## 1
Amino acid sequence: MANFPKSVFPALCAVAIAAGFWGGHEARVRQDTGGASASAKSIGLDSMIASNDQARPGSEADYFYQMMLLLEREYVDAVTDESKLAFGAVKGMVDTLMDPMSQHLSPGEFKALMARKKGQFEGIGVEVLLNYDQTQLEKLRKNESDLDPLLLVPDVVVSMVAPNGPAAKAGIKPGDRIERVGAKWLMTSSALIRLRDLQSKSTQSRAAAEAFAKERADFQAKFKKVLSPARAKEILTTGTGKTLEITWTDGKASKSAKVVTAGCEVPAIKREGREVALKLFDGAAEALKRAGTLEPGTVIDLRNSSQGDFDELKSVLALLGPSGTYGTLKSERVGEPRTLSVETGAPSATGFTLKVDSSTTGAARILAEALAARGVAKLEGKLSGEAVWIETRSLANGSGYTLAIGEFVPNRAEASK
C-alpha cells in the first residue's frame, strides 16, 4: 500500500504515450474516502462528486466542478449524461493511486469479485494483482527527477489459484507472472528491464550484439500485439466458455497451455483430520462452527488465500481468539486510528499452528498476524508483504472498486496478558 503524490498523473501520461497501449487520460483529482465497513457499499452520484469539505476557490473539488462545466459548455458534442463523467472520474482517481490493492473494476470484474468473496470463481480460476516496480514507485513518492515512467507499467501476477479450477489444472501457481493471453502479449516493466539489461551488456561486450538485436526484434514483434495489464486482469478473472492460450513464467522458465474459462467453487474450509484449509469467504465462520471444535494443535492452512471477505475475518477471529483489541489500521489520515477488536471471543482459545507463505494474502494475512501476535497461534512458514485492510465499494452503474484503507499493525502488547 502506498500514498502517492498528485504528480503521478504526468508520469502516467508518459507511460501511456511510450507504451502505446494505455488510453488517453484526463486530469484526475484524488479523493479521500472514508467508511468503516469492509463490505461492499453502494455510492450514488451525489456522493461521488461531493467533497467532505465545501469546495474552496482553487481547490481540487472546485477544479473538478469547473472541468465538468467546461465540458458541458465547450465539448464538440452535447454532454447529456453527467453520470458518465462522474464514473469516469472515480475510475481515474482510483487508477491514479497505482496501488495493487486499490483498483477500479468494470461491472463484470466487480460482479466476479463479489462472487469470489463467496468462493465462486470465473475466468481461469485465479485472482491476480497488478505489481509495480518498487524502486520506481519510491522515486515517484519522492518526486525524484530520474523517475523512469516506462518502468511503472505493472506486471500481472497470480496471487491465488482455485484448487479445482482451470488454471490449477494447467499448472499455474501463485506467484507466476502472466506473459501472454490469447494472441496478445503483456508489455510489462519486466520485459523492458530485460531488454535494457541486454542492451547494457551488449555495449559493454558482455553479450553478443546479435543477441540484443534478436531480443529487440522479438520485443518489437510483441509490441504490435499488446494487451494492457488491466484488460488482461479482466479477461483472466471473468467469463466462462472461452479457450485462451496462456503463457506465464515462474521467473525461471516460460510455460504455455490452452485454458478453457469455467466456473468453479472453492469451499471456505476443507478438513482432513487435524488439518483445516481455511479461506476467508463469506460464510467461513459458520462453516467452522459446523466443522466442530478445533482441538489444541490443529493446523490451519492459510496458504493460497484470496483477498477474502474482511467482515468475515472479524467473525472467524472471534471463533479462534479471545476478546480484546488485536491491532490498529495504520494510515496517514488525521484522527483516531481504526482498530481491529473482538467483543466476545473464544474463552479457551489455545495453540493453533498456521501454515503461511507468500501466498497468504488479503484477510488471511491479517488473521495470521493477529492470532500470532496474541499468542493464540504459531506460524509455520514466513509471511511477506504488507497486511493491508481493503474495503470494497460498489457504484450505481454496476462497477466498483477496492480501496486500501490502512496497514494492519498488531498489538503485540496484548500477547503477554
Note: The radius of gyration is 23 Å.
## 2
Amino acid sequence: MNDHHCKTIDHPLDATVELPGSKSLTNRALIAAALADGDSILGGVLLAEDTRLMIDAIRQLGIAVTIDEAARVAEVSGCRGHIPASEVDLFCGNSGTTIRFCAAFCATGHGNFRLDGIERMRDRPIGGLVDALRALGSRVQYQTRDNYPPLVIHASGLAGGEASFENSASSQWISAILLAAPYAGGDVMIDVRGQIPSIPYIRMTTHLMSQFGVNIIEQYESRRVRFIVEAPQRYAPTNISIEPDASAATYFWAAAAIAGGSVCIEGIGNESVQGDAKFVDVLERMGCEVQREVRRTTVTGPNDRHPLRAINIDMNDMPDAAMTLAVVALFAEGKTTIRNVANLRVKETDRIAALATELRKLGATVNELPDGLQITPPTDFESPAEIATYNDHRIAMAFTIAGLRYPNLTIRNPECVAKTFPDFFSRFGSMWE
C-alpha cells in the first residue's frame, strides 16, 4: 500500500479540467436502461469501483451490458421489465447506490435475490427501503440483523400502492423506489415526511426518469414531498450523455479557493442537474469569484487583500460537498459551521467523526456536532501530518486539497479513491504540473 505525498504550490492556479462522468447519474441511468424496452447507449459513463459493481450486478441478473472503455460508453440491452435471472447472489461492495437501487430493481423480478457487501455495508442502515418495498408488496428477509444487509428479496413483482418515509436516513431509499416504480402492477405513491436529506439527488432521479420517457407527479413542500408514478409505464430505450461528476468537481474548485488563481470545469454549467454543482455558490459566499456558463463553471480564488471568509451553512442538499467545505474551512478567517448533515455518519465511514479527527491533526479546533462540525482554523500550516482515510474515497480526495498549502502532508491508503475516481491524483496534479 503506497502513501500519497502531497505537493505544495507557490503560485496561483490557471487550469481547465475535464472530469469523469457522474457516479450518481451513471448508476441511475444503468438501472433505467436495464429495465428499458430495448437498447440504450450511455455516453460519458463513470468507470470506477461503484459503477463497475452496478454493471456486474446487472449482468448477473441476465442483462447484457457492453462497455467501450476508451470511449467511456455503455450499451445496455434492456430486459423490457422482465429480469431474466431468478436465483442470484449480488455482491455490492461498499456501494450504497448499488445495493439500494438493486434491491428495488430485483423486487420487480421473480425469484430469490440475495444482496450483500463488505463488512462496512453491514453497518449501513437499509430498513427504510425494506419497509417501503414491503408496503409495495415485496417479501424481504434480513439474514443477520434487522435493518441492515445482507438481504434476500423473495420477488414476485411489485404490486404497487403507497410507500411512506419518515425522517429518511438516505435519499437513495427514495430514489430506489422511484426507479423501480414504473414496473409495479399498480400506481405507486411515495410520501416523504419530516427531515428529507439530499433533495437534489431525488430531483436528479426524477429528471433521469423523464429522460427515459417516464412521467412522475411531484409535489415539494418544506417538510413533505410526494410522488405518484402511474402504472403502467415503461422506460424507452434512450441515448444520453452523462454529465461530469459535480461532487468530484468540488475538489478542483476548492483548489482555486485555497491556492488562488482560477480553475474551470468543463461540462458542468448553470443548467446542471447535480446538486453539488451549487458548491460554487458556497465558495462565492466565502469570497471567491464564480463565472457561470451553460457548459462550464470557473472559480477564481480570493487574494491576500481579500482572504476567504468563514461561513455558517446548512449543507443538507449537498452532504458530499460538506466534506470539501470542511477542508476549505482550514484556510478561512473565522469559525465555519456546517449543519444538517447527520446522514454523513452512515456513509462509507462516520464522516463527521473522521473529519473532526483529521482536521485536528492539521491544527484546527473542531467541535463535533450531532449533525455537523464547527471548525476554527489553525494559526500556521507547518506541522507534517498523515491523514487516515478510513477506506473512504471522499476523505482522501478532500484532504488532498489541504496539501496545496500544508507542507509534508501524506494521504494514507490513497487507493481508496478507486471507488469513484481512479485517476484522481494524476488529474489533480495536472492542474499545475
Note: The CA atoms of residues 132 and 163 lie 5 Å apart.
